[in-house]
Amino acid sequence: CFININKETGVSSAFIVNRVKRLAKTPAGHMGTLDPLASGVLPVAIGNACRLFEYFSDKKKTYLARFRFGVTTETLDGEGEKIFRGDVPAESQIQAALPSLRGKIPQIPPAYSAKSVNGVRSYALARAGKQAELAPKTVEVFSFRLIEQTAPDEFSFEIVCGSGTYIRALARDLAGALGTYAYMSRLARTASGVFHIESAVDLDKLTAENLHEYMIPTEEVLPYPVLNLESPRVFNGLAESVTEKDGLYKLYRSGEFYGIASVKDGLAKAEKK
């Protein structure tokens, strides 16, 4: 099962997972970390659900972000030391630059990130004053929309993107396209796949006694059709003939959810339980 946590600013994703793990008295893991400065949706898997993250095909994430223009920091967020200064663009200039950062685009991860360089985390190299050579990675930005100007040098945006996209890097690259600098001053994730902020629960509301009230059954959030099988073959790791089309299915046995099954060339096989 899963719990959709509304992470507050200043708390790490690891802290939340450990808290849920203690309450549930079973292994737990998060589905996409959030930086301590960010808030919002943090789906946490409990028990066997931890093994199913790869089967969530809809990995789109929605963010509300604020970028402060005319200055940037080492970390590309509000925690870093200010290092460059430039002009603050007009709203019309920002609107004109946004299309270049939509779609599939190359993105160089921030120097202060968990990316590894020769086995060493990039943030560790950056803290040691060493320049990390990070290769660009293709990310997908489905939507990048300017919402409003929130301060003389700050604008808010709604961003819908795929996994692996750094919002801090979008602030850097948007400003770079405008010949200036920027950093991410605020970030909130409002959706992660099928999990939305409207149904998220605050961590401080969870207790060992009420945890079950907020648990979301795995079968309710997996984006696959249902496959009912009774033959013991498929539940013993063997293939079973079926008429369903190729693809992934939610596997049920005697009306109870069992796990994930894959169908290929008329044969079904259990994938993960």
Helix fraction by DSSP (H/I, runs of at least 4): 10-25%
List the uncertain runs: none
Q: What's the shape?
A: elongated
Distance between the termini: 12 Å
Q: Give the SSE order as H and E letters.
A: EHEEEEEHEEEHEEHEEEHEHEEEE
Average pLDDT works out at 89
Strand tally = 19
If you compute it from the alpha carbons, what radius of gyration comes out, rounded to the nearest whole angstrom? 22 Å
Strand content: 35-45%
Mind explaining what this structure looks like?
- There is one protein chain.
- This protein is α+β, with helices and mostly antiparallel strands.
- The chain has helices spanning 13-24, 91-97, 122-127, 167-177, 218-221, 232-235; strands at residues 2-7, 28-30, 39-46, 61-69, 71-73, 82-85, 103-107, 116-117, 120-121, 137-151, 154-161, 182-192, 195-196, 201-202, 226-228, 240-241, 247-253, 256-264, 267-272.
- The strands form four sheets. Strands 1, 2, 3, 4, 7, 10, 11, 12, 13 and 14 form a ten-stranded mixed β-sheet that branches. It has a five-stranded mixed β-sheet with strand order 15-17-18-19-16.
- The protein is elongated.
- The chain starts with a strand and ends with a strand.
SSE topology sketch:
Blueprint: E1 2-7, H1 13-24, E2 28-30, E3 39-46, E4 61-69, E5 71-73, E6 82-85, H2 91-97, E7 103-107, E8 116-117, E9 120-121, H3 122-127, E10 137-151, E11 154-161, H4 167-177, E12 182-192, E13 195-196, E14 201-202, H5 218-221, E15 226-228, H6 232-235, E16 240-241, E17 247-253, E18 256-264, E19 267-272
Parallel strand pairs: 1-14, 3-12, 15-17
Antiparallel strand pairs: 1-3, 2-3, 4-11, 4-12, 5-6, 7-10, 8-9, 10-11, 12-13, 16-19, 17-18, 18-19
